[in-house]
Amino acid sequence: MENLELEIWDPIHNFVKLSPSEAKILDSLPLQRLRDINQLGLTYLVYPSATNKRFEHSIGVMELASRVFDVITNINDIHQPEIIKEYLPEIMDKNKCTYWLQVLRLAALCHDVGHLPFSHAGEDLMPNGWNHERMTAEIIREELAPLFTGFDDLPRSLEPEDVVKVALGFEEYHKINKTEEFSNWETILGEIITGDAFGVDRMDYLLRDSYHVGVPYGKIDYLRLIDCLRVLFCPQFENPSLGIEKSGLHVAETLLLSRYYMFSQVYLHRVRRVYDFHLKEFLKPWLEKKWGEPFFSIKTKDFLRLCDSEIMIEIMVSTNGHAKRIRERNHYREVYERSCPVGEMEDLEPEKSIYEELKNEFGKDNVVLDDYEKKGGIQDFPVLTRDERTVNAGSLTQILNKIPSMIKKIVFINPDYRNKAEELVNQKIGKTAKGQQ
Predict the structure, then answer these.
(1) Hey, which residues does 391 pair with through a beta bridge?
(2) Can you give the pLDDT at residue 238?
(3) Tens digit of each residue's pLDDT (9 = 90 or more) over 188-209
(4) Cα separation of 336 and 349, whole Å?
(5) Domains 6-270 and 332-437 in one fold
């Protein structure tokens, strides 16, 4: 007898189940390619066990999205049902929920199919106006849409564009299609995957990356967090949005802090960042030779043929200097780093003046400035209090707006010039400090 479900063992979520139709999509080239896309790029050159792939992450996001959907559509957990029904009529319609759950699961499963080799490391090498989200939309429309016809138990045919909208979320979708309307319900579903506060994409990658890297920073009580999620209408917000019961607020704070610590300790690790530079510098001439320009192809057939293994094979045999540095682990070295705001009396951007001085001394090919900054804090969200009031989270927690900005400003130098460069940097810093006395 044919099995009705495919069961996949996952080290984070235990057994994950897929229907036969979902399994066919999982077996497709766009999804199977993700087995050969490293979630963390070349981070394994710093943390040896950081070899997890986008494939298992996509399965995990689908599983978490389903769990969130089941919680927020549970009739016993809907707060102010008359108001919610007015804004979100789908939430109490069984047929519509059946349809949109399938949309959500496929959107979560396919949300990363547009990732480049080594994930975010090569994102800058896409043509102007393109990113992995836009590539995801094209792959769903062109390659995966024909597979969306096998869901006979749905109340209506599955619309590929519904999957695209939920996979990208309101903000990214409107970058490529500003005229398309987004319903309140589609916005909620997109928020389940990509949301800044409770998006399951973030939830899964923090759990999974922490597990594989071997650090504790991304470990959160995500099961408790999901159980406390609710669709809430708060007077301070224009429409209903994804919020949380007050009893789960401390877990939400943990999620936000975990992301900050994972960025500061793993994602923005100085050696990991410099290997991104070496990889991009290798890829520019390689892509130009392959496709006639130093960018990844946006033709889906070409794009889907490219993964980490092909590029690593090229790196292993290439005479390119940056390829040699990757395979011999002889990367550029840090000579200056700033990871916090500077004082009012200091040079507002000391890394830039240091970079310019070293570039003039040693040549632009021997010096690199890695300049990363992401604003701290987070978008507010509604909280359901114990006395059944709905308030904004900012009125209940100070942590929300006090999460520091993620700043990483690093100047790297060719190791052949490291000692001399360090002397110049120390001299410059010393002069700056003396001038401020």
Answers:
(1) 383
(2) 81
(3) 999 999 998 899 999 999 999 9
(4) 12
(5) no
Domains in the chain: boundaries: 6-270, 332-437
* Per-residue CA distances from 170 to 185, 315, 420 (Å): 11, 38, 50
Tell me whether residue 269 is exposed, middle or buried, using C-beta atoms within 10 angstroms of its C-beta: 0 to 12, 13 to 18, 19 or more.
middle
Low-confidence ranges of the chain (pLDDT < 50): 1-2, 345, 433-437
| Helix axes of 270-291 and 321-328: crossing angle, nearest 10 degrees | 140
| Domain 332-437, CATH class in plain words | alpha beta
The tens digit of pLDDT for each residue in 170-184 reads: 999 999 888 888 999
- Supply the pLDDT for residue 431: 61
The alpha carbon dihedral of 159, 113, 147, 199 has a sign of negative
What pLDDT sits at residue 346? 59
Say what the pLDDT of residue 428 is: 82
- Do residues 195 and 188 make contact, with C-beta atoms less than 8 angstroms apart? no
Q: DSSP code of 231?
A: E
Which segments within 152-276 are labelled E, that is strand? 229-232, 241-245
- Specify the amino acid at residue 181: E
Residue 399: both structure tokens together: 């942590």
Burial of 347: CB neighbours in 10 Å, binned 0-12, 13-18, 19+: middle
Cβ atoms 57, 208 nearer than 8 A: yes
Fold that domain 6-270 belongs to in CATH = Hypothetical protein af1432 (1.10.3210)
8 Å CB contact between 167 and 174: no
> For the whole model, what pTM was predicted?
0.94
* 8 Å CB contact between 54 and 37: yes
363: left (phi over 0), alpha (psi -120 to 50) or beta: left
Burial class (CB in 10 A: 0-12, 13-18, 19+), 301: exposed
Q: Quick check: 146 and 158 in contact, CB under 8 A? A: no
Cα distances from 34 to residues 31, 225, 294, in angstroms, run 5, 28, 23
Residue 199 three-state SS: coil
